[in-house]
Amino acid sequence: MPTPTRLGWIGTGRMGYAMAERLAKGGCDIAVWNRTAEKAQPLTQHGAKVARALPELARKDVVFCMVSTWDDVKEVMGKLLSASERPKMVVECSSISLEGSAELRQMLSRENVQYLAAPVSGNAKVIKAGKLTFVVSGPKSAYETARPFLDMMGAGSSYVGEGELARIAKICHNVHLGVVIQSLCEITVLAEKAGMPRHAFLDFLNKSVMGSMFTRYKTPALVNLDFHVTFTPKLLRKDLDLGLDAGREFEVPMPLTSLTRDLLQQMIGHGLTEEDFSTLLLMQAKASGIELEPENKEVGDGLSS
Ligand SMILES: NC(=O)c1ccc[n+]([C@@H]2O[C@H](COP(=O)([O-])OP(=O)(O)OC[C@H]3O[C@@H](n4cnc5c(N)ncnc54)[C@H](OP(=O)(O)O)[C@@H]3O)[C@@H](O)[C@H]2O)c1
C-alpha cells in the first residue's frame, strides 16, 4: 500500500466523493474538505478525516482536487495557498480548460508545488465498479509518485506528456461523449418509431462492434427512462464549449460538436437541467413526434457484477 504519504482531498461531489472513498477504503491517510461539509462526513466511516478549513490541507504531501469549473478550482487553490505551509504536489482532476490549467501550473510553480493535470473518464458508478481511468500530464517524476494512488482509484492512468496535454485529451474525450450520446438517442428513437422496443435494439447494439462500456451503462436510462443524474447537462455543455474553444485555437473545424452543443442548449433552454444529460433522448422523441414510456425491463449496465 502506498503509505505513509499524507493525502488531502478537495471536493466531495458526485465524483470526488466516490474517488476519495476508494482511497480511504484502501487504507490511505486522507483528510477531505468540501464546501458543504456534511457531504464529506460519511467518509469518516472509512477512516478519512474531515478538515474543518481548506488551508488545513496545505500540510499534506499530495492534495487532490475535484470540483466543477476552472473558476471553482482557482477559488479553492487560492484558499489552499493562503496557508503558511505548502503541499508537495497538487493533482487536479476536474475537467477544466487548457488556459485554466496553465494558469494553475504557474500559480503552483511560483510556490514550488509540483502539479499534475489528471482529469478522468467515468461517472460515480464507474468509480464504484473500479473502472475509472485518468489521463495525466506534468512532470514524469511527479506522475510516478502519484501513480499508486491513481491506480487505487480505478483501472489505471495514461501519461500523455508534459504541461496541459491531459486537458486536451479529456476535452476530446468529452466532446466524443456528447456526440455519441446524441447519436445514441437519435438511433434509439428511430428504432422505436420504426416499431422495435428500445431494449431489443440496444441489446443488439451493445453486443455489436459498436457497443461500448458507455452504450452499455447508458442502456438502463434509455430503456427505463431513469434519468437519475450522473453528469449534468450544464457540465456537459461546459465541456463542449471547451472543445469548441480548443477547435478555434488550433483551427480545427468541429461541425458535429457545434450541432450537439446547440441541441444540448435547446434542452437546457427547455428547462431540462436537473436530470442526467441523457434526457437528450426525450428531446429527440419530442422532435420525432412520439412520447416515450418506461419499458420497465431489467437490463444490465455492464458495470454491476
Ligand atoms: N459526473 C461525471 O460523470 C463526470 C465524469 C468525468 C468528469 N467530471 C468532471 O468532474 C468534476 C466534478 O463533477 P461532479 O459530477 O462530481 O460535480 P458535482 O457533483 O456537482 O460536484 C462538484 C463539487 O465541486 C464543489 N465546488 C463547486 N464549486 C465550488 C467552489 N466555488 N468552491 C468550493 N467547492 C466547489 C462542490 O461543493 P458543494 O458540495 O459544496 O457544492 C462539489 O464538491 C467536473 O469538472 C466534471 O466536469 C464529471
What does it look like?
The protein has 305 residues and is an alpha/beta fold. It contains eleven helices and nine strands. It has helices spanning 14-25, 70-80, 98-110, 124-128, 140-152, 165-193, 198-207, 213-224, 233-249, 255-269, 280-287; strands at residues 6-10, 29-33, 49-50, 62-65, 89-92, 114-117, 120-121, 133-137, 157-161. The strands form two sheets. It has a six-stranded parallel β-sheet with strand order 3-2-1-4-5-6, with helices on both faces. Strands 7-8-9 form a three-stranded mixed β-sheet. Helix 1 links the parallel strand 1 (6-10) and strand 2 (29-33). Bound molecules: NADP nicotinamide-adenine-dinucleotide phosphate.
List the helices and strands and how they pair.
Layout: E1 6-10, H1 14-25, E2 29-33, E3 49-50, E4 62-65, H2 70-80, E5 89-92, H3 98-110, E6 114-117, E7 120-121, H4 124-128, E8 133-137, H5 140-152, E9 157-161, H6 165-193, H7 198-207, H8 213-224, H9 233-249, H10 255-269, H11 280-287
Parallel strand pairs: 1-2, 1-4, 2-3, 4-5, 5-6, 8-9
Antiparallel strand pairs: 7-8
Helix pairs in contact: 6-9, 6-10, 6-11, 7-8, 9-10
The chain binds NADP nicotinamide-adenine-dinucleotide phosphate (NAP).
NADP nicotinamide-adenine-dinucleotide phosphate is lined by residues 11-16, 34-36, 39, 66-68, 72, 75-76, 94-95, 120, 123, 230-231, 235.
